Amino acid sequence: METRYEKLYRKLDVTPTKQRVDLAHLIFAKKQHFTATDLINIVDKKKLNISMATVYNTLSLLEDKGMLKTINIDNEVKFYDTNLENHHHLYNTTMSTLTDIAHDKVVFAELPELPKTLEIESTELLIKARNK
């Protein structure tokens, strides 16, 4: 019988290899933020036989298929987010942690005027803060 992650991959028209299914168990176990390095460290700790290339390729695939949201902190830090609901983020630069902020906790007083050919699809705010 197919597992829920095998079904997920098939629904995405992706072959559900053992490595991809194992990664899905780690990625979608809960709503979370993580980097590729975080995931690689978990794979190593659990002694799963998954290459670094497979981790990166699977993350890219899931991102392309809309199953993961990405938050680019800067050129060196990219977080993956399993929470696909509309929300904002707080990034602690001291601890390198990312936390959700509910969408209704942020109110924009005014947004910039867009070209007439565009309309706002969504807004996402990233607040960077450091420990005092």
Task: Provide a descriptive summary of the structure in words.
The protein is of the alpha+beta class and 132 residues long. It folds into two domains: 4-72, Arc Repressor Mutant, subunit A (Orthogonal Bundle), CATH 1.10.10; 85-129, no CATH class. Helices cover 31% and strands 20% of the residues. The protein contains four helices and six strands. It has helices at 4-11, 18-27, 36-45, 52-64; strands at residues 33-34, 69-72, 78-81, 87-92, 97-102, 126-129. The strands form two sheets. The protein has a three-stranded antiparallel sheet with strand order 1-3-2. A three-stranded mixed sheet has the order 5-4-6, with no helix packed on it. The model has no long low-confidence stretch (mean pLDDT 94).
Q: Determine the strand fraction and express it as a percent band.
A: 15-25%
Order of helices and strands: HHEHHEEEEE
Quote the average pLDDT.
94
CATH architecture of the largest domain: Orthogonal Bundle
Contiguous uncertain segments of 5+ residues: none
CATH topology of the largest domain: Arc Repressor Mutant, subunit A
How are the strands of the biggest sheet laid out side by side? 1-3-2
Largest sheet: 3 strands, antiparallel
Figure out the total of helices: 4
What's the CATH H-level superfamily name of the largest domain?
Winged helix-like DNA-binding domain superfamily/Winged helix DNA-binding domain
Helix content: 25-40%
Shape: globular
Number of domains: 2
CATH class of the largest domain: Mainly Alpha
**What separation lies between the terminal Cα atoms?**
53 Å
- What structural category characterises the helix and strand content? alpha+beta
State the total count of DSSP E strands: 6
Radius of gyration: 17 Å
